[in-house]
């Protein structure tokens, strides 16, 4: 693929609300987020031999604050430059830096476990992103995306984003459980386990 022209991307990560779900005090929202991370933790337990881990697209580093309790030698990266110091402040003990998922800075096959949570749905080129993640991963990927069309249906039920048929601002890709599994099998490797905490799909995959 040719070099990315970032000025022409549909995705506008600098406009996203990265902290909304973590700061939401609503009981239901907090319950769903807790279940989400329980599922991630469950998948991480299946990667016991992983000695290094890297989370891509960390935003303000709030998910990273949870993940660093679960995985060894974790680092993190974020595309939006202004969010990097915020993420670093939230995780002063970790190596955090700016990078694009289309041009990852780690060497080929240098990271045991790559974590890519709630990012793929925001990308103009999801397949290219997975190819680049495949390049740096030595073995594992844990990826989470909204489970569609359930995600949008639940938004409509709570009267959110009605004009966009429940589509969350910034989501330019939509996958069912079946279709995201198919994409990962095509661009990364074998799917080892799948978790479905409402309303997400979270997948653990191993490189072919």
Q: Can you tell me about this structure?
A:
The protein is α/β, with parallel strands linked by helices and 208 residues long. The mean pLDDT is 93. It contains seven helices and seven strands, in the order ααβαβαββαβααββ. The protein has one domain (24-207): Rossmann fold (3-Layer(aba) Sandwich).
Keywords for this entry:
single chain, 208 residues, seven-stranded mixed sheet, Rossmann fold, globular, alpha/beta, 7 helices
List the helices and strands and how they pair.
Layout: H1 20-23, H2 27-44, E1 53-56, H3 62-67, E2 74-78, H4 84-90, E3 95-98, E4 111-117, H5 126-136, E5 137-146, H6 150-157, H7 177-187, E6 189-195, E7 200-207
Parallel strand pairs: 1-2, 1-4, 2-3, 4-5
Antiparallel strand pairs: 5-7, 6-7
Short description:
The chain has helices at 20-23, 27-44, 62-67, 84-90, 126-136, 150-157, 177-187, and strands spanning 53-56, 74-78, 95-98, 111-117, 137-146, 189-195, 200-207. It is of the alpha/beta class and 208 residues long.
**How many strand units?**
7
Low-confidence runs of at least 5 consecutive residues: none
Q: In CATH terms, what is the architecture? A: 3-Layer(aba) Sandwich
Largest sheet data: 7 strands, mixed
Number of domains: 1
- Any idea what the shape is? globular
Give me the strand/helix succession: HHEHEHEEHEHHEE
- In terms of DSSP E residues, the strand content is 15-25%
């Amino acid at each position: 693929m040719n070099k990315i022209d970032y000025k022409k991307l549909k995705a506008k990560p600098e406009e996203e609300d990265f902290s909304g779900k973590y700061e939401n005090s609503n009981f239901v929202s907090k319950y769903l987020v807790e279940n989400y991370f329980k599922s991630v933790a469950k998948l991480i337990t299946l990667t016991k031999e992983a000695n290094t881990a890297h989370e891509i697209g960390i935003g303000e580093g709030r998910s990273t604050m949870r993940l660093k309790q679960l995985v060894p030698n974790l680092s993190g990266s974020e595309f939006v430059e202004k969010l990097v110091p915020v993420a670093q402040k939230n995780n002063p003990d970790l190596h955090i830096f700016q990078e694009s998922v289309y041009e990852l800075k780690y060497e080929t096959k240098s990271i045991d476990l790559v974590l890519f949570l709630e990012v793929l749905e925001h990308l103009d080129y999801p397949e290219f992103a997975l190819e680049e993640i495949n390049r740096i991963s030595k073995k594992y990927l844990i990826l989470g995306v909204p489970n569609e069309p359930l995600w949008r249906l639940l938004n409509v039920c709570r009267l959110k984003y009605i004009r966009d048929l429940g589509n969350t601002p910034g989501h330019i890709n939509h996958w069912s459980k079946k279709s995201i599994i198919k994409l990962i099998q095509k661009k990364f490797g074998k799917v080892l386990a799948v978790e479905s905490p409402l309303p997400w799909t979270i997948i653990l995959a191993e490189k072919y």
